[in-house]
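Posting for a labmate who doesn't have an account.
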Amino acid sequence: MLSFFRWVLFFIALLVTVIGGGLFLGRSMLEAQGPLEKTTNVLIPRGAGPATMAKVLQEQGVISHPRLFRIALMVDPTPKPIKAGEYEMPPHISMARLVELLQSGKLVQRRLTIPEGTTTAEIIDLVRKTDALSGDITVDVKEGDLLPETYFYSRDDTRDSMLLRMKEAMDKTLDEAWRKRAPGLPYANKRDALILASIIEKETSVPAERTRVAAVYVNRLRIRMRLESDPTTIYGVTNGKGMQGRELTRADLQSRSPYNTYVVSGLPPGPICNPGRASILAAVAPAPRDRALYFVADGQGGHSFANNVYEHNRNVARWKEIQRERQEQASPNPSPSAPAPLQKP
């Protein structure tokens, strides 16, 4: 059944709209399929009145008769302001449905996904290159300030507002995790937990391993054993830009960077990336009663953990053998003078 609003439009259209010598039937005009051939996003500009909106909609092929659209807006018994922005118009949307859509204020929702472990510099670059956002970036955000996840936004939301949303999400997530932290953790404050979470994020991509990796580093911190983390060292020697395809060298492992945890004791001075929720939760709740102090790649995408150096050396020898086998498969006739790959101590 037609709503009261649609009946009003029907009678108004009957009274005032005459085109090509024929009287438009209000009801059929309101309910009839529109001319739009395919789904189209239409941008209603800020400050647009009925005439401007009608012109935009006609130019985009959404409506054929601007006059009827303007009448539909004028006779609404309960008028609602139309929010400027981007609307998704389905094919052949009718005049009545078009008015309802515009008055609903349901703008097109875009999404921006920030992967876990992304650096702040990488996130800023991604936000800067997102065309549908507006404005320059003026907010000051540091490493570890932003929470990686999927964010929804509308066209012309500002870049600053997007980054501030990410920062607020990280602050909230870290606060909640810190309140639920396990007792006795060797952290001075929640920032220490964030720093370790960033290391966990870079050390493993296996969800089930995060709390075990956290336990290894917490165990080392408790006995004041150096963390010896490759990701922190890489961050220090490359200023967070990554190795760009090259391997860590012995010179890298001996660098005097404050992020080189082979040389510097304790946590590095700051996060090395923006960790996700899971890594933050692992940092504040390491695997209980896990006494492991070492881990090394197992050749299957995960890691082998060890409680002492003797177990660790066996795991390292196994990993080196896997590496040798892979090199032989990749290069059936390797050069005898080729240098052997550097192995982490």
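Reply:
Got it, the structure tokens are right above this. The CA atoms of residues 47 and 84 lie 7 Å apart.
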